[in-house]
Amino acid sequence: MIRTLRERRVYANRFVTVYDDDVAFADDSRGRYLRIVESEGRPGVAMLASHAGRFAQVLTYRYPTRSWEWGIPRGFAAGTALFSAELELKEELGAAPDTLEAIGTVTPNSGLLASTVHLFHATYAELPGAPDDSREVADVRWLTAAELMAGVAAGEITDSFTQCALLSALARGIIGH
Question: Entry's InterPro entries (predicted)?
Answer without folding.
Answer: NUDIX_hydrolase-like_dom_sf
